[in-house]
Amino acid sequence: MPYKLIASFIVIVLTLTGAAVPVRASDNAAEKWQAEIAGESAYLLDVVSGQALFMKNPDKLLPPASTTKIMTAVIALESGRLNETVTISPKAAAAPRMKMFLSAGEKIRLGDLLLALMLESSNDAAVAIAEHLSGSVDAFCQAMTAKAHGLGATNTIFETPNGLDAGSHQSTPYDLALITRYAMQVPGFVTLTNTRSANFTSDKRSYAMHNKNRLLDEFPGANGVKTGFTNKAGHCFVGAAKRDGLQLISVVLASGWGPAGRNQKFTDTKEILSYGFANYEFETIITAEAPAGTLPVTRSRTKTMDYVYNYGARVPLHQNHKESVYVELSVPTAIQAPIAAGDMIGVARIFIDTDFFVEIPLKATANATRHYFKTSLEKVLSAQVENMTQKPAQITLPEFFAFPHVLSPP
User: Fold this and answer.
1) Is residue 148 within 8 Å of residue 179, measured between CB atoms?
2) Model pLDDT, residue 90
3) What's residue 18's pLDDT?
4) Which of 68, 87, 168, 187 has the maximum number of C-beta atoms within 10 A of its C-beta?
């Protein structure tokens, strides 16, 4: 086990043999497989770890079409206003197809508009939701963009709530994966995207909605998310599926145009998801409370202190790569009392190949009281008195016996 001394800290590198590393876009095998994906850009993300399992032009700025509606749905769900009644404006009613053909003045429940938004990608529903929640489409789009940036999707700009082409309306596969990862944790989102059909009424008419996401029927384990198309964006799709504890998100942008593109976005998605499930599985690389090492203790009668990992780590690992996961422990060369059980005394940094994965605090397992000259002398004198009197004794000396500057413990 190699050691590297840095100032007063020691860095211990532990190689976890038998572990593996995800295939990167720079790997030869991944580069060859990229050519089979028709989309101009793509991304495959593990939801639990947030790790990229595959990428193709992940930061390429492209119009996201109706995958935009993922963020529209997030803001609507988090508003807590789904039971409010929305009055449809002339602007919302005039939105282009795809639409549910709302009419100006029509009154309908916000939650029902959300079903139309995500099941049939209704553009008029998106405008109605935006106006109701923020007062205007512009204000709602500003809130969408701010939310995206707060999630780390800093290359995304939303200028419409429905994904229709406009100005600098743009995103990237990476950004959309981050947004979708967050969305899948929002209560009600996964249920919404997995709803196959819904019937509801406004004050004027009845509606029947059917989910247009073919992936739900064509790919085992599929549980989302959203299709998209505009003349500028081409066919786009954010898909999701869960198998054997792996929850994956796939993003493909610009998979083609026309009927061929409409099919290709699903073909690309199924290829990417299948690759993830075929090549990755979760491995526990660190267990919570597992022993991590021992440190010398100074200024205490306790000479050493064990420390453990504060919590565990699981990661999706590629089956064909071995001995590429390692843990770097950054701890002091010695630790000074007093120490309480549970005190954080260092960190473990986990790397997969050359990529940083996660940092885990290291904590002390026991108490170590401070050893002072005064307290030591009190113990010696108390023991002497007990020996002479055969009775319990507790000697307390004046504070000047501590001699903090003269007899400071080593």
Assistant:
1) yes
2) 98
3) 34
4) 68
Q: Is 107 a catalytic residue?
A: no
Instruction: State the DSSP H helix or E strand holding residue 132, giving kind and residue range, or none if neither.
Output: helix 123-134
Residue range(s) of every CATH 2.60.410.10 domain in the chain: 3-20+287-364
Catalytic choice (41, 66, 89, 255): 66
Instruction: For 6, list phi and psi in degrees, rounded to 5.
Output: -125, 110
Rounded to whole angstroms, the Cα distance separating 402 from 382 reads 16
Residues of the chain with CATH 3.40.710.10: 36-282
Q: How far apart are the two ends of the chain, measured CA to CA in Å?
A: 29
Catalytic residue among 49, 121, 300, 324: 121
Q: Considering 69, 99, 147, 270, which one is annotated as catalytic? A: 69
> How far is Cα 363 from Cα 183, in angstroms, rounded to an integer?
33
- What does 352-409 look like in DSSP terms, one character per residue? ETTEEEEEEEEEE-S-B----HHHHHHHHHHHHHHHHHSS-------GGGG-TTTS--
Q: Are 211 and 218 in contact (CB under 8 A)?
A: no
* Amino acid type, 273: L
In CATH, which of 2.60.410.10, 2.40.420.20, 2.30.30.140, 2.40.50.140 is domain 3-20+287-364? 2.60.410.10
Query: Residue 232 catalytic?
Result: no
pTM for the full predicted model: 0.79
Pick out the chain residues at pLDDT < 70.
1-35, 320-323, 371-377, 397-410
Listing DSSP states for 183-197 in one string gives: HTTSTTHHHHHH--E
Encoded amino acid at 172, one letter: T
Spatial distance between the Cα atoms of 281 and 276, rounded to a whole number of angstroms: 9
**For residue 22, what pLDDT is reported?**
33
Predicted confidence at residue 7, as pLDDT, reads 31
The CA distance from 15 to 142, in Å, is 46
User: Is 36-282 CATH 3.40.710.10?
Assistant: yes
| The three-state (H, E, C) secondary structure of 110-128, written as one string | HHHHHHHHHHCCCHHHHHH
pLDDT at 31: 58
Under 8 Å between Cβ of 276 and 44: yes
202 assigned to active site:
no
Spatial separation of the C-alpha atoms in residues 353 and 182, rounded to whole Å: 26
Determine the pLDDT at residue 181: 98
